[in-house]
Amino acid sequence: MGEPGGRVLVAGSANADFVVHAAHIPAPGETVLGGDLAIVPGGKGANQAVAAARAGGASTAMLVALGDDAAAGILEASLTGAGVALHIVRSARATGAALITVSDAAENAITVAPGANADLAPGHLPTLSGVDWLMLQLETPIETVTAYARAARRAGVKVMLNVAPAQAVPAELLAAVDVLVANEEELAVLVGQAGSLADRLAKLDVPTAIVTLGARGCCALVDGRIVLQPAFRVTATDTTAAGDTFCGTLAAALARGDALAAALAAASAAAALATTRPGAQSSIPARAEVKAFMA
Ligand code: ADP
Predict the structure, then answer these.
(1) ipTM above 0.90, yes or no
(2) DSSP helix/strand/coil, 226
(3) Rounded distance between C-alpha atoms, residue 277 and residue 283, angstroms
């Protein structure tokens, strides 16, 4: 599994989140006046890379496609500021963006423009030499994700796949996955809702299948054995990026040599802390905070 101080490569998406608060979400044809615009770094891949880097004990790099624009600068600054080494594919398209309206009732409406993320291609994968874990999600083209997972499997690199956003996954991708992470909705899309959690995780037929259950914690099926990790008790105020914090922290913990139970505990603690703070990357805690929280 790689020696302590291992390496994680995250390959995936980065988006600039354009967030505005308004009294209500506009109906079709309606214009509403909102508050000040916040432009913040997000995207599942970038969030997970920041989480892996802040988790510590492993070095983290990210393969990411960005445009040649101001949004790219915001994302690069956030990633490098967290200590993520970057492999950037420079795209002629705009950097990925999410247009987010948040209402007074805490509902949101989100439009994602994938932009540069759609340009990430199989040929862009950097050398996997020295990499222990490849971390993937589904906000970049599925053919690319599949090609990366297969290349990692051939190179003896472990693959963690976060099946988010929810969608069906080709069998050849699942066949190259060592650890799969899904939330409840994503698991339902993959294997339906009939049967026990253990039966549904078993249907995925991967060595380790994990379902995250929000405030109820998470459940892993490892070679036929169930491992339960309760959530840490917090007052959650913003669950944005809880799943991403969980995934990135888990990848770093496994890369630095933690056993699965310890890695699940660290991932859950980091994710719980992230729910107590606003935003995506800004909410992800550093290892020292997580250790203090768990002590
Ligand atoms: P996603 O954000 O992908 O929907 P979940 O909501 O399942 O994923 O959250 C991922 C993990 O974050 C959970 O397994 C848990 O460890 C932690 N978490 C989420 N919500 C809470 C909460 N309210 N209190 C404590 N931990 C939480």
Answers:
(1) yes
(2) strand
(3) 5
Dihedral of CA 140/49/77/63: which sign?
Answer: negative
C-alpha pair distances (Å), 228 with each of 12, 83, 114, 223: 28, 31, 35, 14
Q: How far apart are CA 22 and CA 9, in angstroms?
A: 38
User: Left, alpha or beta for 289 (phi > 0: left; psi -120 to 50: alpha)?
Assistant: alpha
Q: How far is ligand 1, taken at its centre, from the CA of residue 159, in Å? A: 22
Residue 277: which residues within 8 A CB-CB, separation 6 or more? 237, 238, 283, 285
For the chain, which residues score pLDDT lower than 50? 1-3
Does residue 91 have its Cβ closer than 6 Å to ligand 1?
Answer: no
47 lines ligand 1 (CB under 6 A): no
Q: Is the dihedral of CA 43, 46, 52, 56 positive or negative?
A: negative
The amino acid that residue 76 corresponds to is E
Predicted pLDDT of residue 267: 98
Q: Give the separation between CA 248 and CA 11, rounded to whole angstroms.
A: 12
CA angle 7, 80, 292 (to 5 degrees): 70
Please pick, among 119, 132, 244, 258, the residue that the annotation labels catalytic. Answer: 244
CA separation for the pair 229, 261 (Å, rounded): 8
> What's residue 1's pLDDT?
39
Concerning whether 244 is annotated as a catalytic residue, the answer is yes
